[in-house]
Write a structure and sequence with these properties.
The protein is α/β, with parallel strands linked by helices and 243 residues long. The protein is built from seven helices and seven strands. Helix 1 packs across helix 7. The N and C termini lie far apart (46 Å). The structure holds NADP nicotinamide-adenine-dinucleotide phosphate. NADP nicotinamide-adenine-dinucleotide phosphate binds next to helix 1, strand 2 and helix 4.
Length: 243
């Protein structure tokens, strides 16, 4: 049976790895026929990931979307429903971070971070949830962060947004548990992705890689529907690498 999986921020980093791991499972897991709906703001990234997914035998579609823009988030949901009729899984992965000392952060940094991490994630979830509620099945992943529970000096606004996402996770659990929808909060530590920009080699060596995160996510999706992995906390073996 076809399973419709929306992945936001699928063009790079962790989101790309999640898309590829779902695509690989299409070739190995009997009966798993995903249609991967890949969303981000950069069409060329999405087209490249979509081609990789198809090379593993999965169907993939791309919908260029800025989740911070309500009209575009609405269009992601309505277009998916028009094309495929339902949504089985939403991976709320799209996120941004501006990492600076407290005194250097600007109002624009604040608005930019909150627009994607909080507003975008909230309204997309709000639009998708009724589809799952009505059919009494579905799975929503939130890629928050260990910064949803622990503050770091260089990430005050980012941490505020991630603590906020954790609030949304907890609120969604209250709704989801009444209608058989699974909610998984994924809290990674440092993962080497484009989000970090230039990273010194010594630091790269201790950081995790995107498929260290995507593997457990796809495994959580494949557990029996009666079972919900509520949290995945995944850190570099040396622990947190920044303050
Ligand atoms: N890397 C880490 O160490 C780490 C650790 C814990 C949690 N996380 C979280 O994991 C998620 C993915 O991070 P990453 O490290 O993979 O980041 P990344 O490499 O920068 O990739 C982020 C993806 O999200 C997309 N995106 C950003 N803003 C968007 C928006 N408004 N609408 C749609 N797509 C948007 C980006 O594409 P466009 O720019 O083309 O839109 C890109 O495809 C984020 O939520 C991040 O906070 C990361």
């Amino acid at each position: 049976m076809k399973q419709i999986i929306i992945i936001t921020g699928a063009g790079k980093g962790i989101g790309r790895a999640i898309a590829l791991d779902f695509a690989k499972a299409a070739g190995t897991k009997k009966g798993f026929e995903p249609i991967l709906v890949l969303a981000s703001r950069t069409l060329s990234d999405l087209e490249a990931v979509s081609a990789e997914c198809r090379s593993f035998g999965a169907e993939a579609d791309v919908i260029e979307t800025d989740i911070a823009d309500m009209a575009q988030a609405d269009r992601l949901v309505s277009t998916t429903l028009e094309r495929y009729g339902t949504i089985d899984c939403l991976v709320n992965n799209a996120g941004v971070g501006r990492f600076k000392a407290l005194s250097e952060l600007t109002e624009e940094d604040y608005e930019y971070t909150m627009a994607t991490n909080l507003k975008g994630t909230f309204f997309l979830t709000q639009r998708v949830f009724p589809v799952m509620e009505a059919k009494r099945s579905g799975h929503i992943f939130f890629i928050t962060s260990i910064a949803a529970e622990t503050a770091f000096k260089s990430s005050s606004i980012y941490s505020m947004s991630k603590f906020g996402q954790k609030g949304l996770v907890e609120a969604m659990r209250l709704y989801a548990k009444t209608c058989n929808v699974r909610i998984t909060n994924v809290m990674p530590g440092a993962v080497y992705t484009p989000m970090w920009g230039e990273v010194p080699e010594a630091m790269q060596c201790v950081m995790m890689r995107p498929d260290d995160i995507s593997g457990p996510i796809v495994n959580a999706y494949f557990l029996p529907g009666r079972t919900s992995v509520e949290e995945l906390v995944i850190r570099p073996v040396c622990g947190d690498i920044n303050e």
